[in-house]
Amino acid sequence: MVADLDPNEGEVSLNGVSRDSLPAHLWRRRIPYVAAESGWWAQTVHDHFAPDQLARARALAERLGVGDAAFDGPVDRLSTGERQRLALVRAFILDAPALLLDEPTGPLDPVSVRKVEDLLLERLATGAVIVLVSHDPAQGARLGARRLRMVDRKLQPEEDAG
Amino acid sequence: MISLSPTDLLLASSLVALDAGVSVALRLQLHRQFLWAAARMVVQLVAVGFILRFIFALNNPLATLAVVVVMGAIAAREIAARPVRRFKGIAGLTISGATVALATLVTAILALTTAIRPHPWYDPRYAVSLVGIILGSVLNSGSLALDGIVGGVWRERTAIEAQLGLGVDYRTATLPLLRESLRRGLLPIINQMSAAGLITLPGIMTGQIIAGMDPMEAVKYQILLMFLLAGASGVAVLVVAELALRRLSDARQRLRVDRLK
Asked: Which CATH number fits domain A32-157: 1.10.8.60, 3.40.50.1980, 3.40.50.300, 3.30.70.270?
């Protein structure tokens, strides 16, 4: 509903700007959504970035453990984990005030998870809002987040036990 | 003009029997389809011959219009049925119907009121034949373009939604698909024009020459027709692709593949 990618009803606003007051793509530009399954629309990874953002994207990918070889290669050579991290990079470089992440570390190994979480914590420190879905109960604690659990199609506040 | 007798046709039909024989001998399992298609062709054409003779004799604008509308409706149904994934409800038919109507009317009326100018301009001998030829082209281009959009959006849905999620607008995210679909839809008419006269003698022209028309006159007609077909194809691919793309999104620029079956 926040990403506004499926038909829905209700009101959402971010920093006082309501969703319906903005054209859909400008709203999403302020609160990018990264799906659990990453989508690709060009042959090579670097074609997915604007030329003026390429250097930053490359540096961020490097930080998440994706090197130049993967960055300049074709998308279909990437592992699921590499794809996921690069999809996160695509959203990060937009410098949006909020991020919607669906299982951002789902297919990642513990080392990569750590790297992604460090980046998320940095973002949070700058005052950004991050909403993420995770199957790892400990992830919320590591990020110091407010946790809600999905039970019977309803979100419930979770106690600080997990 | 040399008139054909039933015996002439019967003799020629032995060639179909020959094809069917080959199928049986080589176990292609095509002989049933072959004979069925040949029989269908004969029945359909004879029926059309009678209907056309009747309509020409009537020479009534409403009757002509009715025939044209029925032909258009059949073409629209074919276009909508072509893609593997179809629109739910009547959206597919609405899109293809609008495409057929617009592309055919624009080109047919242009031709009938400027170049061909029969008296009266709705003379069924010209109107029905012209619409028939144009519909063939509209059907061909329109179904290729529609299939390109619907199939393409379905295939690329994850990639399109990934872009939408990052704040790219729907039009930008689907532009490569639009271009690809328009190209696909326009290639047949380009092939048809570049091959005309060298690789193929177009059917209409051949027919007119056999029927006794001067080749240069037949050629002029054929050139006019090719231009009309190019125009009709252009309108058809643009309209069908635009309408299909719109139907696959909404006011909030979501990707609405849920509107496909």
From this structure: 3.40.50.300
